């Protein structure tokens, strides 16, 4: 049957088949309530924040770490923001950590109780349209229809939508609402997520195993992988910058903290300059944080962000432990690994250290990281590396 002539799926039939499949094949996730248990709103909220633009594999150890250290939302609210940032280090999108802390404080002021409805949840710091719908449905079984990457892909395939997801968001959202059953909206949302993570994957979807194959126009077309339609990619601009690795005789390293707001806000970094498309690396030494015999290390450290690619040139020097410019401070070598370092700064620091240990020989070049947004739109619900923000 041609894809265009497929009838629209009926909510009751599709939902019942999908839920029957999910009751058998549901994934066991650390934040997911077991059968017969009521969901923990704190665990659901924590997982949804950690999983934004991140994979399940990457987020799981963070979830265990947060829940062990701060088992209640009130505990997280009482923690210093610096500790929260350190525990978040390496996960990217650091504004999430600041909003998470602010949200925890707001919930603590409400006696540790999360609001149940989608509109009230959306008023909380760091909770947008998707997270409020996911929490309302999953934590409270409210009539809400979250749409993440997996769900958007499934709906785009069900209807063989001719437009890319970004251009069809309103149609996808309306379809999600129409398909959501009134009795198990939270289970239905999670079933769709699991279906997208295990069967209706971006590449090589396993259509014969799909419980809703009969409703899928993309499957009927014979080329389900052709959907969702791909948007034209625009090349990321290349920005350049410099970072300075200053080490004191006692092993301390000169660091600074980025401003709370903005890109990588609140994270700790090597002092540096640039991060612009027209940055002249030849001018970098004049931005050095202290007077020293700076030497330029070979190669660059590269990181892909959401909207641009960054190449950092690294300079290294021995420096006087008494010297420090405004905003910089010395960190003991034993304390460096506990800092709230972003991914790019962790790589820059590791590269400088490798070069230091290698002496005159050049270490292996740092790997270029090519990352992309992977919010529940890849083979394992959240798969692939996430860019930093």
Summarize the structure.
This protein is an alpha+beta fold. Helices cover 36% and strands 11% of the residues.
Q: What is the CATH top level name of the largest domain?
A: Mainly Alpha
Distance between the termini: 45 Å
The CATH architecture of the largest domain is Orthogonal Bundle
Number of helices, where a helix is a run of at least 4 consecutive DSSP H or I residues: 13
CATH third-level topology of the largest domain: Endonuclease III, domain 1
> Unreliable segments (pLDDT under 50, ≥5 consecutive)?
1-6, 360-389
Shape descriptor: globular
CATH 4th-level superfamily of the largest domain:
Hypothetical protein, domain 2
Please provide the ordered H/E string of secondary-structure elements.
Answer: HHHHHHHHHHHHEEEEEEEEH
Which class do the helix and strand fractions yield? alpha+beta
What's the domain count?
Answer: 2
Percent helix: 25-40%
Strand content: 5-15%
Largest sheet: 5 strands, mixed
Radius of gyration: 24 Å
Q: What number is the mean pLDDT?
A: 89
Count of DSSP E strands?
8
Written overview of the protein:
The radius of gyration is 24 Å and the shape is globular. The N terminus and C terminus are likely disordered. The protein is of the alpha+beta class and 389 residues long. The strands form two sheets. Strands 1, 4, 5, 6 and 7 form a five-stranded mixed sheet that branches. It has a three-stranded antiparallel sheet with strand order 3-2-8, with no helix packed on it. α1 crosses α11, α2 packs across α3 and α8 packs across α11. The protein has two domains: 217 residues, Orthogonal Bundle (Endonuclease III, domain 1), CATH 1.10.340; 121 residues, Nucleoside Triphosphate Pyrophosphohydrolase. It is 36% helix and 11% strand.
């Amino acid at each position: 049957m041609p894809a265009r002539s497929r009838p629209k799926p009926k909510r009751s039939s599709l939902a019942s088949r999908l839920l029957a499949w999910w009751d058998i094949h549901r994934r066991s996730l650390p934040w997911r309530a077991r059968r017969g248990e009521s969901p923990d709103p704190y665990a659901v909220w924590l997982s949804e924040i950690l999983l934004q633009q991140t994979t399940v594999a990457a987020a799981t150890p963070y979830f265990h770490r947060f829940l062990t250290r701060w088992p209640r939302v009130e505990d997280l609210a009482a923690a210093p923001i610096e500790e929260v940032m350190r525990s978040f280090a390496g996960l990217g999108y650091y504004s999430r950590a600041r909003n998470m802390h602010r949200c925890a404080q707001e919930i603590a002021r409400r006696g540790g109780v999360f609001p149940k409805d989608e509109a009230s949840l959306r008023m909380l710091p760091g909770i947008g349209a998707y997270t409020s719908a996911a929490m309302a449905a999953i934590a409270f079984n409210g009539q809400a229809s979250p749409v993440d990457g997996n769900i958007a892909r499934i709906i785009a395939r069900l209807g063989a939508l001719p437009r890319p997801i970004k251009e069809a968001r309103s149609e996808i959202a309306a379809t999600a609402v129409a398909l959501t059953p009134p009795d198990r909206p939270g289970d239905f949302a999670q079933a769709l997520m699991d279906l997208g993570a295990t069967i209706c994957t971006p590449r090589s979807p396993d259509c014969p195993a799909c419980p809703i194959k009969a409703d899928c126009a993309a499957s009927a077309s014979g080329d389900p992988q052709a959907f969702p339609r791909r948007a034209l990619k625009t090349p990321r601009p290349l920005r350049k910058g410099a970072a300075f690795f200053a080490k004191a005789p006692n092993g301390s390293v000169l660091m600074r903290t980025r401003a709370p707001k903005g890109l990588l806000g609140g994270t700790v970094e090597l002092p540096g300059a640039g991060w612009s498309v027209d940055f002249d690396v030849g001018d970098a030494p004049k931005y050095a944080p202290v007077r020293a015999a700076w030497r330029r290390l070979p190669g660059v450290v590269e990181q892909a962000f959401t909207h641009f690619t960054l190449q950092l040139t690294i300079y290294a020097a021995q420096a006087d432990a008494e010297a420090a410019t405004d905003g910089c401070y010395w960190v003991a070598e034993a304390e460096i690994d506990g800092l709230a370092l972003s991914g790019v700064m962790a790589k820059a620091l590791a590269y400088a250290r490798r070069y230091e240990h290698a002496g005159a020989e050049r270490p292996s070049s740092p790997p270029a990281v090519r990352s992309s947004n992977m919010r529940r739109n890849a083979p394992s619900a959240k798969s692939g590396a996430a860019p930093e923000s």
